[in-house]
Design goal:
It is elongated, with a radius of gyration of 32 Å. With 407 residues, the protein is mostly helical.
């Protein structure tokens, strides 16, 4: 088997494009391209809606970094959704020739935008995580002074990596769209290791942020809004004493004799109208204590929500793209290895094809040896759903903005 100019041939016989589909039943992936394109279009509109919603308010740093994350995803999904409109430019040039950056400028452009947008999104997600940590844990907003420097750094890194891969002729169709070809090891290393270096540490930093905020909050859950004297704990102890004495004495009047230090004087003039008895200082203290507990629980909820959002965003960006990249690359690697050292079963499969049996019939030989088509489809769909999942993550905040400014 020889590979040249996007074609894989054995003698005078060439494999149909996409090459991967030859080993599965005929039309097994017929709906894959429309589905990926459709999901990408929905994700595009989800990102556009989120970006529009965020423009209602101008959040302070680091919240405004989310604008850049959404913009990067918008470009990513727009680029991905074009495959249905121009399949001959992004998937197959003809029935036996796969699209590569050498035979399709559109393939080159899609690959560059694909890699650049991935780095743009992940760099700004990392910056958001680091800035949130500095703000919540260290009360430090120094990074806000370097927003223009951050933007320049992200753009240079994104375009630099994407352009370098193009210089290595590293873009080709994977059967769905133009991305990094598995055959170019250096191009894959240039994509993978910088992305892991930029995304991994900030992702782990989120857990430190949550730990520190919860530790501080749980160490003094009742401190905020508590009365200065007596303390909340003293008030609680006083409440217990009042409860016990109340059961023993049987009336508030008698109880007040034993707990006068906790009570505001309530003597009434016999000639004056009946007035509502003022609350004791202890009662006020206990109300404030209960309010403090509620506020503390609300703060805990806010901490988990606000800190959990960047973790969820990092998981979406790293996880879904990682799944797509891993499945796509491992699949392409499996098939391209056939060129150098075909496994034994490929001989049986090839003889089946040469005997003019149907592709579906011959797939009975190959399918048990390969990844399930559902695994491949899951990899295809994972990255295209990124915008939809991000919409679900941001939905509560977006709903509040729309209720405030529109509804």
């Amino acid at each position: 088997i020889t590979s040249a100019h996007g074609q894989l041939c054995a003698g005078e016989c060439c494999f149909k494009c996409p090459f991967v589909h030859n080993f599965y039943p005929e039309n097994a992936f017929a709906t894959s391209v429309p589905t990926v394109s459709g999901i990408s279009i929905i994700s595009f509109f989800c990102c556009a809606f989120l970006l529009t919603s965020l423009l209602f308010e101008s959040p302070q740093f680091p919240g405004n970094l989310i604008h850049h994350i959404e913009f990067g995803m918008l470009v990513f999904h727009l680029n991905q959704s074009l495959i249905l409109a121009f399949p001959s430019q992004f998937i197959c040039k003809d029935s036996i020739t796969a699209a590569t950056q050498g035979n399709s400028f559109a393939c080159l452009l899609q690959g560059v935008v694909f890699i650049a947008s991935i780095f743009y999104v992940n760099c700004y997600t990392a910056a958001y995580c680091v800035s949130l940590h500095l703000l919540l844990v260290w009360n430090n907003t120094s990074l806000s002074k370097y927003r223009s420097h951050l933007f320049a750094f992200v753009v240079v890194v994104s375009l630099g990596v994407a352009g370098s891969i193009a210089g290595m002729h590293g873009y080709a169709s994977n059967g769905i769209m133009c991305t990094i070809t598995a055959e170019e090891v250096m191009a894959n290393d240039l994509f993978f290791w910088p992305l892991v270096t930029l995304s991994g540490p900030p992702y782990l930093l989120n857990f430190w942020t949550i730990y520190e905020m919860l530790r501080i909050q749980l160490a003094s859950p009742l401190r905020a809004n508590a009365p200065s004297s007596p303390s909340v704990l003293e008030a609680a102890a006083g409440s217990i004493r009042r409860s016990v004495l109340g059961r023993q004495m049987g009336s508030d009047a008698e109880l007040d004799k034993y707990s006068s230090r906790d009570t505001i004087s309530t003597q009434l003039d016999a000639s004056s109208p009946v007035k509502e008895r003022p609350k004791s200082y202890l009662g006020v203290a206990m109300e404030r204590a209960a309010e403090s507990v509620d506020n503390g629980l609300q703060r805990l909820k806010d901490i988990v929500t606000e800190s959990g959002r960047p973790i969820a965003m990092c998981t979406v960006c790293i996880g879904l793209l990682g799944i797509d990249y891993d499945i796509s690359n491992s699949t392409v690697n499996t098939f391209t290895s056939f060129i150098e050292s075909p496994p034994d079963w490929t001989i049986d499969w090839f003889m089946c094809i040469m005997s003019h049996q149907s592709q579906t019939e011959c797939a009975r030989i190959s399918v048990p040896k390969l990844s399930s088509k559902f695994v491949l489809q899951f990899g295809m769909y994972s990255s295209s759903a990124m915008g939809i999942i991000m919409f679900l993550i941001m939905a509560p905040k977006t709903w509040k903005l729309w209720r405030k400014h529109v509804i």
